[in-house]
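Subgroup meeting minutes
Present: P.N., E.W., G.H.
Scribe: E.W.

1. P.N. recapped why we're keeping a running log of single-chain structure predictions: easier to compare across weeks, and new members can see raw inputs and outputs side by side.
2. G.H. added today's entry (108 aa).
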Amino acid sequence: MIYVDVNVIYYYLTAHPGFGEKAKRYFEELDDLCTLHALTKLRNIPEILEEIGITILPLTQEVLNFAMGFEKLRFEDAIHYATMKLNGIDTILSNDSDFDKVDVKRIF
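Output recorded in log:
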């Protein structure tokens, strides 16, 4: 399973001039993708994520507790990291080099 950071989803959805095509290629080539429920103004985000093959993982109290005790990353990134660790995921599709500071493999 590969965790997808929100920035890559944003690149895809907005056809970002620098990264949109790259995000699209990854979504076409990779299987078993997941992310934390993205907070957005888009009401149909679950349908959009399902359409591009991304499973939504829940934000739980256990994830929040893990993230609050983790100081190597900003809290928002620590939530993603905690979600990954608690779900046995070791790879993240992200353009955020902060994830290079922790024990996950970052691709993008």
